Amino acid sequence: MHILVVNDDGPISTSSPYIYPFVSALQQAGHRTSVVLPDKPRSWIGKAHMVGSTLECSYYTPAPGADQWTLVNGTPASCTQLGLHHLLTDLPPVDLVVSGPNFGRNATTIYNLSSGTVGGALEAALCRKKAIAISFASKEQQSSEIIAAAARISVQLIEKLWRKWGPGVELYNINVPMTANVGACKVLYTQALPSSWISGSLYQETNSNGLINGLSKGHINGGSNGALTHKTFKWAPQLSDISRCVEESPPGTDAWAVSNGSI
Fold first, then answer.
1. Residue 16: which residues within 8 A CB-CB, separation 6 or more?
2. Coil, strand or helix: which one is 248?
3. Are 137 and 177 a contacting pair, CB within 8 Å?
4. Which of 5, 74, 116, 238 could form a disulfide with 78 if both were Cys (CB 3.0 to 4.6 A apart)?
């Protein structure tokens, strides 16, 4: 197969430790692999495009003797678009788009709908290409042996899904537990666990001294003179809602499967 690989974690780094072993495993299995990645992490960006922006490509060699990868100052979805329509026109058509492996799980509807990894695969589906989003379900440091084993089992799953692609399926989302026996893990078809923000938030207000019209923080919308107070918020996800949802998840859901060591 000719496989286009995109991700949302960018090139090799501490926040993108899985991409090179995975691409190597695909190539060792005999697949032509083209790699187009964001030039920096683009997590939680979904299937977004940066409207009005001009995208630039650069080229990156991940290891001595390795094929060059393309880096784009865009999103995972834009990497999919450029890979399918612009960058690989001198190569055979892409058979399959694989987005990932994500650094951490993508299970439950909140993660699936927010994930740049899933977003890259969704973009491929909208371009009428078969697509697989894959996540290595741990943000903890892993041994090279576990990473290599996860990459091998992922390639085997990709090949099996390609051979027996379900009727009407546009993309698959795979979560691989990072355990010593990952090669022996049970493989389950599941449904995404519904989840929502109830008490949590993705942002937290910071202590800001910035004022508008010289007014103190106490002057809020509709306050004295109708003036607005300058406020700032930092990225600080409160994940208690998701954690509770996962703990209570019934059998047959993606979160339940990953929590119980299944793929």
1. 7, 9, 10, 41, 103
2. coil
3. yes
4. 74
